[in-house]
């Protein structure tokens, strides 16, 4: 059972995803604000650092944005040189570039940007200068992959790129074609804005707001219900879907109980607070300890109150299996990115270790953010990586705790 809950307040909109009653994802956006990732800016190169093979650009934010050399080279890997040229051959101070934010500013670091521009739609991602066609790896059926690739190839113009998204499985070619043309039209608008005189730096493209992004990226046929507690927002979602995915309209529900809030009904707030603690209890009595450092995030698995009844190996195996499922969920909920290390309880049987790894890989498939399970290290740890876009704690109404040197958060009363 998968549900999306949309709670609309006067100051902000909140979105929660429940899987079998458990909170798996959470996001919010204050009314009148926006996220930066996905936006495009016409910026000015301020510094070029040969030693870092990177450049810093003023794009109109508080801190200069970071542009690495890989994000300046052609998006198509076959067109990249075998050896990277000096960054000074690609950009010069004072040069004007169109860049897109791929990573939000975090802490003391500014936004990370790229010149590999992309505009996502419901069925695919349009890349005006990528010059290649791709199909989501999550689409396993080879015949369907080939059909979708042919559908995209028949519509792209020379030099354009397009990646077919997982949601496009079974979608007619004509709908994919219409999606591509609509995205192409958005890019044309960006090109027109670039040519117009105006102040520098300046924003020339804004990605969808929170609700539209969730309807576009997160609402698919595997969602049983989408609950909304506002009549106007409910109507706007229905209107949006009638043109892109009318079959999903029957899954939308209006929550009109004034005696209790939508989130309270599904215990979202309680799960949100418990889900961001350092110590997370598992259903069997085991627990996880989560520590964040500058370099990586560490999950430590412990048996806790669970003692089992067969053997130490079986106790460790049962706890590790449950932990693998919860870790995959917590990565999405807390939006943890970067390098991740998991210290599972030691197991002696190789088959058990493989099944724990398989469970982790299976649960990771639910994640819309690119995540790679590397595997077991020689020290018995599991390594994995998850694309970092923004700090998950930015979503929460919390402040860093000064008493513990910023390692904890204080929730409002």
UniProtKB/TrEMBL annotation:
<dbReference type="InterPro" id="IPR004659">
    <property type="entry name" value="RNase_E/G"/>
</dbReference>
<protein>
    <submittedName>
        <fullName>Rne/Rng family ribonuclease</fullName>
    </submittedName>
</protein>
<keyword id="KW-0460">Magnesium</keyword>
<feature type="domain" description="S1 motif">
    <location>
        <begin position="36"/>
        <end position="116"/>
    </location>
</feature>
<keyword id="KW-0479">Metal-binding</keyword>
<dbReference type="Pfam" id="PF10150">
    <property type="entry name" value="RNase_E_G"/>
</dbReference>
<keyword id="KW-0694">RNA-binding</keyword>
<dbReference type="InterPro" id="IPR012340">
    <property type="entry name" value="NA-bd_OB-fold"/>
</dbReference>
<dbReference type="InterPro" id="IPR003029">
    <property type="entry name" value="S1_domain"/>
</dbReference>
<dbReference type="InterPro" id="IPR019307">
    <property type="entry name" value="RNA-bd_AU-1/RNase_E/G"/>
</dbReference>
<keyword id="KW-0378">Hydrolase</keyword>
């Amino acid at each position: 059972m998968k549900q999306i809950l949309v709670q609309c307040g006067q100051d902000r909109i909140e979105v929660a995803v429940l899987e079998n009653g458990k909170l798996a994802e959470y996001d919010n956006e204050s009314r009148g604000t926006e996220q930066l990732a996905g936006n495009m800016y016409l910026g000015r190169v301020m510094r070029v650092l040969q030693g870092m093979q990177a450049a810093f650009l003023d794009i109109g934010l508080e801190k200069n944005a970071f542009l690495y050399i890989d994000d300046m080279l052609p998006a198509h890997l076959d067109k990249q040189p075998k050896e990277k040229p000096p960054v000074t051959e690609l950009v010069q101070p004072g040069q004007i570039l169109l860049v897109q934010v791929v990573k939000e500013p975090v802490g003391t670091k500014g936004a990370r940007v790229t010149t590999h521009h992309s505009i996502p739609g419901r069925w695919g991602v349009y890349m005006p200068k990528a010059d290649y066609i791709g199909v989501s790896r999550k689409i396993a059926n080879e015949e369907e992959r080939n059909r979708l690739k042919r559908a995209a190839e028949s519509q792209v113009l020379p030099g354009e790129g397009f990646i077919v998204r997982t949601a496009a499985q079974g979608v007619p070619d004509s709908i994919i074609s219409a999606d591509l043309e609509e995205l192409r039209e958005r890019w044309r608008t960006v090109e027109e804005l670039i040519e117009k005189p105006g102040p520098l730096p300046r924003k020339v493209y804004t990605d969808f707001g929170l609700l539209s992004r969730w309807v576009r990226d997160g609402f698919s046929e595997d969602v049983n219900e989408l609950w909304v507690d506002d009549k106007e927002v409910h109507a706007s979602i229905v209107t949006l879907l009638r043109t892109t995915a009318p079959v999903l309209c029957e899954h939308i529900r209006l929550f009109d109980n004034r005696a209790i809030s939508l989130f309270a009904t599904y215990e979202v707030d309680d799960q949100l607070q418990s889900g961001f603690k350092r110590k997370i209890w598992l259903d069997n009595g085991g627990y996880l300890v989560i520590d964040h450092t500058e370099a990586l995030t560490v999950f430590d698995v412990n048996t806790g109150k669970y003692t089992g009844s067969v053997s130490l190996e079986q106790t460790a195996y049962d706890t590790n299996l449950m932990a693998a499922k919860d870790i995959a969920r917590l990565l999405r909920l807390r939006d943890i990115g970067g390098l991740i290390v998991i210290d599972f309880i030691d197991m002696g049987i190789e088959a058990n270790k493989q099944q724990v790894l398989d469970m982790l890989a299976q649960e990771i498939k639910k994640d819309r953010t690119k995540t790679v399970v590397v595997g077991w290290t020689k020290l018995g740890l599991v390594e994995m990586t998850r694309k970092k876009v923004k700090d998950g704690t930015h979503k929460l109404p919390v402040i860093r705790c000064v008493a513990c040197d910023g390692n904890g958060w204080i929730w409002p009363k």
